[in-house]
Amino acid sequence: MASGDIKPYIGCSDTSVPYNVVDIAGLNSLLRQVLENATAAIVVMVKSRASICATVDSPKRQKKKAAMTMFGITTPACDAARAVLEKNDCEVYVFHAAGSGGMAMEKLILDGVFDGVLDLTTTELADEAVGGILSAGSERLKRSSENRGTNIGLHQLRT
């Protein structure tokens, strides 16, 4: 399935699926190279994750986490808002509102990753309404409201 449409299987996760080039019907030099590349990628990801976990799990105080949507026309407003949030000890995660960005943000909101959300860019809703190509689906803005813990203002991010 790696060569087909795998979105129904992995959604908006960060799952990596290497294209196998040839079918797995006996080993040959091309398939061996593909499998070696996949193995090397896994090793690097595991080492990187271990390094990140060691840094993130340090006893240092964690910053508040804020999600934000951005798209070309909203970039100046998002840049200004991000500057304010960062001055107030927030780590800002910017999602490009191009369908997959909104879906990824909503998934992370539901997972409880963020302390707040600044959804400045709602172009994905317009795409859904008029049949555009950058829709994040009909559930955009609905599912994330289920996680009431993210509905906070800047004054709450400061505390």
From TrEMBL:
InterPro entries xrefs = Tobamovirus_resist_UPF0261, UPF0261_C, UPF0261_N
Q: Which residues form the UPF0261 domain?
A: 1-49, 63-146
Read off the PANTHER family from this record: UPF0261 DOMAIN PROTEIN (AFU_ORTHOLOGUE AFUA_1G10120)
Q: What is this protein called?
A: Uncharacterized protein
